[in-house]
């Protein structure tokens, strides 16, 4: 490509501030105002009981119980005071999930990639924990 030697004159096309002002309605909403207005118009039926809500949620997401077939330890690292262990969780239904356990000197944290993997990791490392799928 050749370098530009001369620009097209556009000085006559530049508009003044007064020419650029356009009228807006007095009740014009901002994005936030519009979101609040539309959000306020949403009505929801109250949930009658938590058990009915759980049942409805299970049908919506097509929940099916499953069990852990095997938890494979894939690798570990130690760096800057943190030890990590990587796991591959194999479930009885043929699906799998990954999880990483990060352990400091006195604490353990599981970085969740998948909630089901988190549940099984809690059972694996804290069998006394209550309230998780068994």
Secondary-structure map with pairings?
Elements: H1 17-20, H2 31-40, H3 50-61, E1 68-79, E2 82-91, E3 96-103, E4 108-111, H4 115-125
Antiparallel strand pairs: 1-2, 2-3, 3-4
Describe the structure.
- A four-stranded antiparallel β-sheet has the order 1-2-3-4, covered by helices on one side.
- Strand 3 (96-103) and strand 4 (108-111) form a beta hairpin.
- It contains four helices and four strands.
- The protein is of the alpha+beta class.
Number of helices: 4
Helix content: 25-40%
Termini separation: 69 Å
Radius of gyration: 29 Å
Query: For the report, how would you describe the main beta sheet?
Result: 4 strands, antiparallel
**Helix vs. strand class:** alpha+beta
Q: Could you spell the SSE succession in H and E letters?
A: HHHEEEEH
Count every beta strand, where a strand is a DSSP E run of 2 or more residues. 4
Number of domains: 2
Q: What strand line-up does the widest sheet have?
A: 1-2-3-4
Strand-residue proportion: 25-35%
Shape: flat
- What average pLDDT do the residues reach? 80
| Uncertain runs | none
Brief descriptors of the model:
134 residues; alpha+beta; four-stranded antiparallel sheet; 4 helices; 4 strands; 28% helix; flat
């Amino acid at each position: 490509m050749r370098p530009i030697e001369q620009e097209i004159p556009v000085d006559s096309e530049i508009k003044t501030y007064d020419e650029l002002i356009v009228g807006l309605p007095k009740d014009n909403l901002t994005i936030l105002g519009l979101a609040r207005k539309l959000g306020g118009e949403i009505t929801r039926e109250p949930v009658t009981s938590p058990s009915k809500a759980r049942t409805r949620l299970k049908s919506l997401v097509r929940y099916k119980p499953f069990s852990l077939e095997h938890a494979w330890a894939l690798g570990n690292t130690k760096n800057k005071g943190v030890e990590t262990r990587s796991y591959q969780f194999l479930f009885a239904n043929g699906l799998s999930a990954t999880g990483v356990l990060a352990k400091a000197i006195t604490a353990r944290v599981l970085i969740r990639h998948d909630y089901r993997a988190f549940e099984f990791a809690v059972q694996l490392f804290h069998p006394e924990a209550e309230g998780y799928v068994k």
